UniProtKB/TrEMBL annotation:
Keywords: ATP-binding, DNA damage, DNA recombination, DNA repair, Helicase, Hydrolase, Nucleotide-binding. One of its GO terms (biological process) is telomere maintenance. The lineage of its organism: Eukaryota, Viridiplantae, Streptophyta, Embryophyta, Tracheophyta. It is an enzyme of class 5 (isomerase). This is ATP-dependent DNA helicase.
Length: 122
């Protein structure tokens, strides 16, 4: 079904539709919306558990972690975006901070995509 929906979207962008291909199955209008499984997956993290993590660990943040957390969350909630380079010695809490940022954003149903550049860590 998902593949069909994607094909339908491509066709519509070009002024066409699966409707024209009588032998093809049809995509219902209702399933055409909110149908991207990749997006649905990213929005379906267990929010209660994320909120628990947030409530448990957010108060533990150091002043420095809190400052970075607030700055990044503000950029997200205000839709400003930005590029932030968080650095520090091993064991200083970068991953801890990253998990809290992910939990804060995902618990609202918003999307966090983790990516990594290979060859950078040493
Ligand atoms: N503010 C904090 N309160 C309690 N525990 C913390 C805090 N910050 C970090 N930790 C804990 O310290 C340990 C090391 O932190 P973390 O793994 O986030 O460091 P890191 O900077 O990502 O390290 P590395 O660069 O080696 O990957 C983890 O067990 C983490 O849960």
């Amino acid at each position: 079904m998902y593949a069909l929906q994607e094909i339908e979207k491509l066709l519509r962008r070009n002024g066409d539709s699966l409707e024209r291909f009588t032998k093809m199955p049809k995509v219902s209008e209702s399933s055409a919306n909110d149908s991207n499984v990749l997006i649905l997956d990213e929005r379906s993290y267990p929010r209660e558990a994320l909120l628990e993590t947030l409530e448990r660990d957010a108060p533990k943040m150091t002043d420095e972690q809190r400052k970075i957390f607030d700055e990044i969350i503000d950029a997200v909630t205000e839709g400003r975006g930005g590029t932030f380079f968080v650095y520090g010695f091993g064991g200083t809490g970068k991953t801890f901070l990253w998990k809290l940022l992910s939990a804060a954003i995902r618990s609202k149903g918003d999307i966090v995509l983790n990516v990594a550049s290979s060859g950078i860590a040493s």
